[in-house]
Amino acid sequence: MTILTLTSEPGALELAAQLRAGDLSPLEAVDAAIGRVEALDGPINAVPVRDFDRAREAAKALDGKTASTDQPLFGVPMTIKESFDIAGLPTTWGHAQFKGNIATRDAKVVQQLKAAGAILIGKTNVPPDLSDWQSNNPAYGRARNPHNLDRSPGGSSGGASAAVAAGMVSCEFGTDIGGSVRVPAHFCGVWGHKSSWGLISKHGHDHPAMAGKDAHDGVLSIAGPIARNADDLDALIRITATLPLQAASKPLKECRILLVADQEVSPVDAAVARPLEEAVRTLEATGIAIDRSSDLLPDLEAQHADYMRMLGIAMVRGAPGPDGKQATATDWFNLLDAQARAEIAWAQLYETYDFVIAPPAPIVAFEHDDTPVRDRKITINGEVRDFAEVFAWAGISTFPNLPSTVLPIGESGGLPTGMQVIGRRWSDLDCIAIAREMGAILHH
């Protein structure tokens, strides 16, 4: 299978090994990353917030030192999504009026990455309010897909995936409530992981309107890593997890897997369906058991409806929607009950199956489109449909709080395609491990 790659730069752990071996210094690694951003980012616009001087100073402070055992990213330069606070840098969430909102402290994830030895060289582009599968905003302009500049890199962690795919940095950290890690990974041909809800702290990831109020993102939203390989995802999850995780280490060939290749509410375009089917057949040819239907699968149409209602309320923090209606406390508690039922239904499915595989999105990277999401249309297999339907493939694991790893599996028309591997809650390391095994087969 053809896997689209744009760089031969090493991954995060590989670069860290070179640093530990003395093959290059932290300052040399940081200078090289800065050079790549300066050389590559002009047309892509993935890294609009740059912190090069402080990054160089941080690297100089590490030169001559030896990494401790708890610093797996010692000297590794990376970027992070603009919505995370870094002390001394603006956090705008894509709004020009918040360019003066300078963070006074690092987000928890930033603290964890720095403690692991990483050096943050900048922040990556997002859509306003992190609410689109594009990354275009009044504060910093439009991020573009490095595979095709006329296409979206995804959103809301679009700049993050574009920077990793282009080789500017080896890894990143984004967030995901509506596919915001998984879709950019799929659009840009890299790896991404949507963590189990509650696994990674979102402290210091607050909308500027709530700055200083210790706001909490609440339901659905998670933080998760983006990288060019599974090993780096694994390391980033271990660095940032706030709960102990144990990998089951069950081999792929012993796993029973369920394929969800289509949803009535959101049909999958042939550009995504063809590479997915080819990947499934390749895996089956090695003896892996993959079922294509099951009565255990929850009612995905009903789940999507509940997810979209909860997502809409969460994104506006309970304010009236476009129709002027405002959710009541009863509405909210009913949704929480529906979410709990969905969690139970998926847990019952995972008594039989080890993993579910599915498309991360029903489309490949689409052309830039400034039509508001609620009014936007998308063409699926020649049929014009409402864009909002595409979120069914994000909600499939977001609503029941499940982890999901996206790996690249192929290409369609010169654009990358991916697959998400969804597991039971807290099986984050297992999702990554199984995706690694699948990648070893599919990328051979």
Overall shape: globular
Which value, in Å, is the CA radius of gyration?
20 Å
| Helix/strand order, N-terminal first | HHEHEHEEEHEHEEHEHEHHEEEHEEH
Taking all residues together, what is the mean pLDDT? 96
Terminus-to-terminus distance: 8 Å
Secondary structure class reads: alpha+beta
Number of helices: 12
Let me know the largest β-sheet: 8 strands, mixed
Give the strand tally. 15
Counting structural domains, the number is 2
Provide the low-confidence segments as ranges. none
Give me the CATH superfamily of the largest domain.
Amidase signature (AS) domain
Percent of residues in beta strands: 15-25%
CATH architecture of the largest domain: Alpha-Beta Complex
By CATH, the topology of the largest domain is: Amidase signature (AS) enzymes
Q: How are strands sequenced across the largest beta sheet?
A: 6-8-7-14-15-11-9-10
Structural features, described:
- With 444 residues, the protein is of the alpha+beta class.
- It folds into 2 domains: 229 residues, Amidase signature (AS) domain (Amidase signature (AS) enzymes), CATH 3.90.1300.10; 191 residues, Alpha-Beta Complex (Amidase signature (AS) enzymes), CATH 3.90.1300.10.
- 34% of the residues lie in helices and 16% in strands.
- It is built from 12 helices and 15 strands.
- Helix 8 links the parallel strand 9 and strand 10.
- The longest helix is centred in the last third of the chain and has 21 residues.
- 52% of the residues are buried.
